[in-house]
Amino acid sequence: MLSVDEALKIVLAHATPLPPVRVALGDALGCVLAEEVASDVDSPPHDKAMVDGYAVVAADLASGRATLRLLEVITAGEVPRLIVEPGTTTRIMTGAPIPAGADAVVMVERSSIAPDGRIALDEARTVAGQNIFRRGRSLVRGQVVLRPGARLRSIEVGALAEVGRGEVQVVRRPSVAVLATGNELVAPSAMPDPGQIRNSNGPMLVAAVREAGATPVDLGIARDDVDDLARLIEAGLAHDVLLLSGGVSAGVLDLVPAVLKSLAVDEVFHKVNLKPGKPLWFGHKVAGTLPTLVFGLPGNPVGSLVCFELFVRPVIAKLSGRCDIAALRVSATLTKPVAQRGDRPTYFPAAYCETNAYRRVEPLPWQGSADLATLVQANSLLVLPPGDKTYAEGEPVEVHLLGN
Amino acid sequence: MLSVDEALKIVLAHATPLPPVRVALGDALGCVLAEEVASDVDSPPHDKAMVDGYAVVAADLASGRATLRLLEVITAGEVPRLIVEPGTTTRIMTGAPIPAGADAVVMVERSSIAPDGRIALDEARTVAGQNIFRRGRSLVRGQVVLRPGARLRSIEVGALAEVGRGEVQVVRRPSVAVLATGNELVAPSAMPDPGQIRNSNGPMLVAAVREAGATPVDLGIARDDVDDLARLIEAGLAHDVLLLSGGVSAGVLDLVPAVLKSLAVDEVFHKVNLKPGKPLWFGHKVAGTLPTLVFGLPGNPVGSLVCFELFVRPVIAKLSGRCDIAALRVSATLTKPVAQRGDRPTYFPAAYCETNAYRRVEPLPWQGSADLATLVQANSLLVLPPGDKTYAEGEPVEVHLLGN
After folding, report:
1. Are B88 and A248 in contact (CB under 8 A)?
2. Cβ A93–B205 below 8 Å, yes or no?
């Protein structure tokens, strides 16, 4: 049986970053840039005032004081028309272009209006260049601001706006369809009859896809019926990834593998050596312009979540063009003993805690692979290698942080 | 002038968690739960099979082998009708209810069909309870699964689905309006004329609001005109928070404070002792059912981002009912010397790096408060206290991590 590392390697080998698309800047947050972006302007575009005040010839204030004739008042968006010559000044505000002739700005707090209506300035520290921010000091026209591969945060959105990008080329956000399968499933709002359970995997996986930065498409529940499965799986194959929940173990009505085959989805592997999550199925459909990667996730909630974290989240990151594909794994010390039994590496729901000096992890009381009630207390999975062993309090163990 | 800590304390004192609303489970991701949620079912709802296989009377396999008559085949969603008595078996799949009479399940891999059509089982380890998961072991009806205050991740969405919550009561997601002000501003897609600059703060703040988990409402650009400002600010006051960018320093056309006053928005403070970001304005409108908090952010991009991080992000967290309101601050050692000048604490864009043992921070070459081109390389702000001092390589400094 494949190990987790071998299976992940195979899965990632089937995924390549999606082609670039042009999107409105407002839709680019969280996406990965797919073009080099250079500035089309100098920033600032002109020598500009760093304070509200009076543009002057610095030499006029050699004594620390001057009374000057007001030429004009420049407000935001206006440009100075008159040349500041010795004995004159122009009122400008923060960010305004420095008028020709001026070589310093005196803060408005240092000004008053003289009895004759002229402007009295009192600023001993006035030197040429004072309170002026030079054209192109932040950014020169043609300077590269962002390179392909940058993940766009709010800061990058601001920088793209500054250099004129109302639209931007990004790696397309993966579209991920989610389909729960099984006659026993009912919607969360329904009360299950005997033999039925609620579809918790569907809503959980839709939310996990959104958390991972992809666009989820909820296909609902497919019944254990070849026609229903084929219709919904075909709809799912229109997306970059199709997540199936349930229907891939060895039950009598586990029809999914046969239906996938009939729709030209090739099996790549079935079963991985881990607990929970062993029945994982992975395949792909190559036909059409872009392949669809298909995961058959275990029907039990914890196995489904573990497989999502270990295999689907990294695939979404790679398809999205991100460089942070590997999950965050750290070493921590156990705060409680934990017993490992059996020949499969085991992922226990755990509470990880980091202080300034220590990394500690507490295994949570876990009732098995259906136990979402324990998982709600977890922020991590404690990873124990195969082999019967009781790990003692204080032993170092590996921890997989959830949602990273 | 208020210190950053004093200002933050005042800002947070004006914010209380928003009232609860009922939302569809699919819209609850990232929200904070506003009710206690108990399970309305036992989970599992019946003793269930943990493997695909045959339900048996364990005593039949005392010798390790048995050949049994097949009673019926139970598929997903079906319930067993017949009682398993000694000498008989029922085929069930993973998750199916255990038929009455049976007390163990033998894996299908341990079965074959005997020449007479009966089912031959070969499993030496069969004991009562084998491969059976007891009713209510994960969750008992009435058991509390989630408490108010829980932030809903994909796992919690799955748990809510399991206990029947197609809708759930959550703290309302804050609605945050963003309005850039200034005659000098043009849209990102336009080429600025002399004296004009592009509106980079608007798109940046809209994206930052979304990153912080609130719903942004982009009000575009208001001109330095009382009527235009009043119309757009009034629209902004319909939301929980209004972010104004620009228009709060001492420029000739800085009309914003007067317009806010005319719309019954009370000033709480103006100016905070920090760099960049000193001109921050904060006020609130109490009239109506819910107050609106109003921030006048500096017009320069870095000052605007710093004020968002220090004051707006915590307010959004508090309004959202979250408990992680405080920003993540760590101590790190400088990788390069950095000079601090002046009487204001300074927030330098910086690159923070954490290895298993060390926390290091590199100050980035920073051209002043308009410099988004440097900020795109930053993941943190290096915080230096007031006072002229050159900090040496290796000195410990405080670091504010961005986006936490």
Report:
1. no
2. no
Whether the CA torsion A386, A387, A393, A395 is positive or negative: it is negative
Closest CA to A89 of A325, B134, A113, A77: A113
What CATH class has A20-41+145-171? alpha beta
In angstroms, what separates the C-alpha of A352 from chain B's closest C-alpha? Answer: 15
The segment(s) of chain A belonging to CATH 2.170.190.11 are 48-133
Residues of chain A in contact with residue B25, where contact means CB-CB under 8 angstroms, are 188, 203
Parts of chain B belonging to CATH 3.90.105.10: 20-43+137-171
User: Dihedrals φ, ψ of A279, to 5°?
Assistant: -75, 10
In chain A, CATH 3.90.105.10 covers 20-41+145-171
Choose the mutation target among A48, A108, A154 for the interface with B, i.e. most B CBs under 10 Å.
A154
- Residue B312: predicted pLDDT: 98
Q: Fold for domain A4-18+174-319? A: Molybdenum Cofactor Biosythetic Enzyme; Chain A (3.40.980)
Chain B residues closer than 8 Å to A41 by CB: 191-192, 198
Contacts of A191 in chain B (CB under 8 A): 40-41, 164
Q: Tell me, which fold does domain B48-133 have in CATH?
A: Molybdopterin biosynthesis moeA protein; domain 3 (2.170.190)
Q: What is the CATH number of domain B329-401?
A: 2.40.340.10
Could you give the CA distance from residue B340 to residue A353 in angstroms, rounded to a whole number?
35
**Is A73 in CB contact (< 8 Å) with chain B?**
yes
Q: pTM here? A: 0.92
pLDDT band (50, 70, 90) for residue A184 = confident
- Residue A285 backbone zone (phi > 0: left; psi -120 to 50: alpha; other: beta): beta
Nearest Cα to Cα of residue A391 among A403, A383, A381, A400: A383
Rg (CA), chain A: 32
Q: What is the dihedral of CA A113, A119, A125, A127, to 10 degrees?
A: 170
Quick: pLDDT tens for A311-348: 999 999 999 999 888 888 889 999 999 999 999 999 99
Q: Which residues contact A267 (CB under 8 A, 6 or more apart)?
A: A257, A260, A261, A281, A282, A283
CB B145 to CB A202 under 8 A? no
Is the Cβ of B150 closer than 8 Å to some Cβ of chain A?
yes
Q: How many CB atoms lie within 10 A of CB A16?
A: 12
Write the pLDDT tens digit of every residue in B163-196. 999 999 999 999 999 999 988 899 999 999 988 8
Burial label, B53 (beta-carbon count in 10 A; 0-12, 13-18, 19+): buried
A342 dihedral zone (left: phi>0; alpha: psi -120 to 50; beta): left
Tell me the DSSP string of A257-318. HHHHHHTTPEEEEE-BS-BS-TT-EEEEE--SSS-EEEEEE-SSHHHHHHHIIIIIHHHHHH
On whether the B4-18+172-319 domain is CATH 3.40.50.920, my answer is no
Query: CA nearest B96 in A: which residue?
Result: A195
